[in-house]
Amino acid sequence: MQECKAKIGKAHVYNEGNDVYDVMLNQTNLQFNNNKYYLIQLLQDDNAKVYSVWLRWGRVGKVGQNSLVSCGGNLAEAKDTFKKKAFGMSPSPRRTTASSITRATSHELHGRGRRTPPIIGSEEELKEKIALLEALSDIQNAVKMFQSSIQSDEHPLDRQYHSLKCQLQPLDSDSNEYKVIEKYLQSTHAPTHTDYTMTIMDVFAVEREGEKDDFHSQLDNRMLLWHGSRLSNWVGILSQGLRVAPPEAPITGYMASFKISDGPVVSTVTNMPQWEI
């Protein structure tokens, strides 16, 4: 339930099985600079079969206006009010259940007030916006993890570490694994990348929860690969693993042809200034 102050702690969004009576409609018109929303929810009181329909509408980014339509104990009236509003606002109304109503979300990348947002006019601009959305998605995952563990009595750092569900073990510089990685770093720096050098700061052994069971130890055709990524991506990588972009996604800046940004040459996968390995 979103911001119905009269019903906070007293009611919940009504559902029938998988049919949830909760809709967010969006209207975007670049020509006339219209970017509006319309929220519709059918609410049921927690302690009684009393129903109401909560409406909130206005310009995206603004509080807008709202209305709470009381339907008493008449569920049929509440459903009818909900459907009339939902299908009445849609350009292509359909006689289906509430589960078929898709939640449409507008992604506003920059706060522009009432100014008309610029039209993306080139492939490079499109790549920039896609990269920004990817970074925001990873940041959102990190925030969700933080919020899910905020009620714990643990120390905040321990809370965040445990929410990763991933063990991180620092390697000693005298260990065999550390020496192999150090040698691999120096021997795979491409001769054309002469404007910088790299040194190891820390090496961590990583074991994600459940990943050991999926590891096919009997296979011997393995290769060590480097991975470079923005710092904002690493919470998502450690908690969820590397995610391969779909084939239709445009390349957003990595040098190698791999859609997962891996490669055997360290200076190739780190040749972006914002990346960490």
UniProtKB/TrEMBL annotation:
Domain PARP catalytic: 155-277
Record has NAD as a keyword: yes
Region named Disordered: 86-119
Catalytic activity as recorded in UniProt: NAD(+) + (ADP-D-ribosyl)n-acceptor = nicotinamide + (ADP-D-ribosyl)n+1-acceptor + H(+)
Localization, UniProt: Nucleus
Position of the signal peptide: none
Documented EC number(s): 2.4.2.-
Presence of the UniProt keyword Calcium in the record: no
GO biological process, one term: double-strand break repair
Compositionally biased intervals (Low complexity): 90-104
GO molecular function: NAD+ poly-ADP-ribosyltransferase activity; NAD+-protein mono-ADP-ribosyltransferase activity; nucleotidyltransferase activity
Record's GO cellular component terms: nucleolus
PANTHER family: DNA LIGASE, POLY [ADP-RIBOSE] POLYMERASE 2
Family: Belongs to the ARTD/PARP family.
Name of the featured protein: Poly [ADP-ribose] polymerase
